[in-house]
Design a protein that fits this description.
With about 300 residues, the chain is α+β, with helices and mostly antiparallel strands. It folds into 2 domains: about 5-90 and about 250-275, NAD(P)-binding Rossmann-like Domain (Rossmann fold), CATH 3.40.50.720; about 95-240, Dihydrodipicolinate Reductase, domain 2. The protein is about 35% helix and about 20% strand. The chain is built from 9 helices and 12 strands. It has helices at about 5-15, 25-30, 45-55, 70-80, 100-110, 140-155, 250-265, 270-290, 295-305, and strands at about 35-40, 60-65, 90, 115-125, 165-170, 180-185, 195-200, 210-215, 220-225, 230, 240, 295. The strands form 2 sheets. It has a 9-stranded mixed beta sheet. It is globular. The two termini are about 35 Å apart. The structure holds nicotinamide-adenine-dinucleotide (NAD). This is Gfo/Idh/MocA family oxidoreductase. InterPro entries: Gfo/Idh/MocA-like_OxRdtase_N, Gfo/Idh/MocA_Oxidoreductases, GFO_IDH_MocA-like_dom, NAD(P)-bd_dom_sf. It comes from Paenibacillus baimaensis.
């Protein structure tokens, strides 16, 4: 299903003579086809409308990040989900790679001791040459890209921040109408600090989409450079972490988990109730930028309580 004729035509060419119905309108698809689940991989501005219609049809939902751009929509979504007996999973595929799993295992088995601080750097020159929804996004860096990084940090630390102080800019040479460069200081429980910097308008050497991550603790550090995970000792020695074998990774693992959670009636790790907390990291960053002040994450988390 796609609103654009040329995309449906192209899909038809790829599918050749397979008799798979195609639709211009998601409601038409929902009323014409018997299905168990819907994957919503459309621009973020359309996510809520489509998801709410799918909920009326009573199907499981696999939704691309970001959940939505608006906190108010996200709260409304959570309210509906609390009364919904089907799965709603957000695709946070960055979690499901061997390098991130290796870091997760090293932290979980105590290799770096008590975590003290996180240094997170993401730098790329990302040009959207065509006039798509990306060009018109207000806080594109944070809403569409940093969301992956914030979700990774929540996953690795297994906690949420308490306070956020952020700034963001739109460089004069940017292709995007909104923010493409910015930084945020996150204060986590027990005095743990994260310094985050992201740029989509960078002319220097690029990081990968994961970015460069260093998590330093009382006994050492884990770091990710060029998607290679390392364990660093107190004496400065550094060794590559072994990569776990994964039958599925990234998007493949997300899809596997979605189907598994339906078949076994389990909560997917990145379901709506989990993902709203990553979404809140983005929202509090944006609030901090707009209000030019340090923002309490918990004030917004409380707003999610019924
Ligand atoms: N998880 C990841 O790593 C990752 C990577 C890229 C994009 N994304 C996300 O996937 C989503 C889509 O991004 P994209 O790069 O594919 O965008 P895109 O612009 O390339 O494609 C979006 C498609 O949706 C169609 N569309 C627009 N409005 C629609 C509607 N109302 N109903 C049905 N179809 C509609 C468009 O015609 C287009 O074919 C976004 O939320 C984006 O953030 C996630």
């Amino acid at each position: 299903m796609d609103v654009a004729d040329e995309n449906l035509k192209y899909a038809g060419e790829l599918l050749q003579d397979k008799a798979i119905p195609m639709f211009h309108d998601h409601n038409e698809a929902l009323s014409s086809v018997q299905a168990d689940a819907v994957m919503i991989i459309t621009p973020p501005q359309t996510h809520m409308t489509i998801a709410f219609d799918v909920m009326k049809a009573g199907l499981h939902i696999f939704l691309e990040k970001p959940l939505t751009y608006s906190f108010e929509d996200a709260v409304e979504f959570v309210r509906k989900y609390e009364r919904y007996d089907k799965k709603v999973m957000i695709n946070q595929n960055y979690r499901w790679t061997p390098e991130i799993q290796a870091m997760k295992q090293a932290i979980a088995n105590g290799s770096i001791g008590d975590i003290g601080y996180i240094d997170y750097n993401f730098r790329r020159l990302h040009n959207s040459n065509v006039d798509t929804w990306r060009v018109h996004s207000g806080e594109f860096l944070f809403t569409d890209v940093s969301i992956h990084h914030f979700d990774l940090i929540r996953y690795l630390l297994e906690c949420e921040p308490e306070y956020v102080t952020a700034q963001g800019i739109r460089p004069s040479w940017s292709w995007c109408e909104g923010i493409t460069v910015g930084g945020a200081i996150f204060e986590f429980p027990k005095g743990v600090l994260m310094n985050y910097f992201g740029s989509l308008s960078d002319f220097g050497s690029s990081t990968t989409w994961n970015g460069e991550i260093r998590i330093t603790g009382s006994e050492g550090a884990v770091e990710l450079c060029n998607d290679i995970p390392y364990l660093c000792g107190k004496g400065g020695e550094r060794q590559e972490l072994p990569l776990p074998q994964m039958l599925y990774s990234s998007q493949g693992y997300s899809l596997h988990q979605f189907i598994y959670s339906i078949r076994h009636d389990m909560r997917p790790d990145t379901d709506l109730m989990d993902n709203i907390k990553s979404h809140l990291m983005v929202h509090t960053v944006i609030q901090s930028i707009h209000r030019n002040e340090r923002v309490a994450y918990d004030d917004y988390l409380q707003a999610l309580n019924p």
